[in-house]
Specification:
The protein has one domain. The relative contact order is 0.10. About 5% of the residues lie in helices and about 45% in strands. It contains 1 helix and 8 strands. Strands 1, 2, 3, 4, 5, 6, 7 and 8 form an 8-stranded antiparallel β-sheet that branches. It is flat, with a radius of gyration of 24 Å. With about 220 residues, it is mainly beta.
């Protein structure tokens, strides 16, 4: 099994810790069935690349400080706040991870444009039922300037069966309090088609749209 590259020179005397697990929830979707792995420690090996010393190494230039453009200093109306909450239901044997991603509200003084981004993600799983796993993500993005205000609300829910991923996605766009667009998508695909499925959910027009008398946005 090829491991990730770390681009790090390990000093003499240091040790590497190798951790092996059959799960990495919620970073990786669980296997549809419990997995049992056996490791033969007596015959297993860890092969590391070895770079031989080069006399020219001492002539290499040190990296300087990274270059960056002048940062923008907006006026902050609501400070960002990020939380990671783990809830354990002992009776139901359910674990829920709630991730709060509030990027705050701020104004670009040069343009007077106000930005507001916040989202919440909930990941649930049962101890003895990997197929009960679910991911529920909700985001709201709002832009405002003077009397003009628009916002986008979206939600995506993902579950699975033994051989397929099931995704339901909904996106709504508002000008003021008037909804000007709504798109709903439901898709099922095999694990190997997940990237294609995500692409389709984002870029392929599907569903139904509200058409008020003055429609200021078009779906492309």
């Amino acid at each position: 099994m090829k491991l990730k590259d770390v681009a790090f020179a390990i000093p003499v005397g240091h040790r590497l810790r190798v951790a092996i697990s059959t799960t990495y929830w919620p970073m990786v979707w669980p296997s549809p069935r419990p997995v049992r792995l056996s490791i033969c420690s007596g015959t297993s090996t860890l092969d590391l690349p070895v770079r031989k010393p080069d006399p020219d190494d001492q002539n290499h230039r040190e990296f300087g400080s990274p270059r960056a453009s002048q940062p923008v200093n907006p006026t902050v109306l609501r400070k960002p706040n990020h939380d990671w909450i783990v809830t354990r239901d002992l009776k139901a044997e359910e674990t829920t991870i709630t991730v709060m991603k509030d990027n705050g509200t701020f104004i670009l003084d040069s343009t007077g444009l106000e930005f507001d981004h916040k989202g919440i993600e909930a990941y649930r799983i049962l101890d003895n039922d990997p197929l009960a796993a679910s991911a529920d993500m909700r985001w709201t993005v709002r832009y405002r300037r003077d009397d003009w205000c628009v916002r986008i609300e979206n939600r995506a829910v993902m579950t699975s069966t033994e051989d397929r991923f099931l995704v339901t996605a909904n996106i709504e766009a508002y000008e003021g309090e008037t909804r000007v667009l709504r798109r709903m998508s439901r898709m099922a695909c095999s694990a190997g088609s997940l990237l294609l499925m995500v692409f389709c959910l984002i870029f392929v027009p599907y569903g139904h749209y509200d058409q008020p008398e003055k429609l200021h946005y078009e779906n492309h």
